[in-house]
Amino acid sequence: MTYFIFIIRTAIFDLYRNKMRTILTSLGILIGVASVVLLLSFGLGLKEFIRQQFDSLGTNAVFLIPGKIFNQGGGFRGGQGALGGIQFDDRDYINLKRIREAQYVVPVFTKTLSIQGTEKTEYGTLYGTIADIFPSRNLEVEYGELFDKTAVEKRSKVVVLGPSIAAKTFGNASLAVGKTARIDSQSFKVVGVLKSKGGGGLGGPDFDSFMYVPYKSAYVFNPNKTFLTMLLRGNSEADVAIIKMRMNEILLKRYKEDQFTISDSKEFIATIGSIFAMLNSVLVAIGAVSLIVGGIGIMNIMYVSVTERTREIGIRRALGATERDVLLQFLAESVLLSIFGGLAGLGFSYGVVFLLQSVFPAYIDLVSVLTALGTSSFIGIFFGVFPARTAAKLSPMDAIRYE
Amino acid sequence: MTKTTDSKQVSAVIRVENVWKEYRLDNDVVFTALKDINTSISPGEFTSIIGPSGSGKSTLMHVIGLLDKPTRGSVWINNRDVSKMDDAQVSMVRNEFVGFVFQQFNLINKLTILENIVLPTIYTRKKLAYDPVEKAKYLMERFGIGGKERSFPNKISGGQQQRVAIARALIMNPQLVLADEPTGNLDSKSGEEILKLLTELNRDEKITIVVVTHDHSVAKRARRVIEIKDGQIIS
Question: What pLDDT was estimated at residue A200?
Answer without folding.
Answer: 47
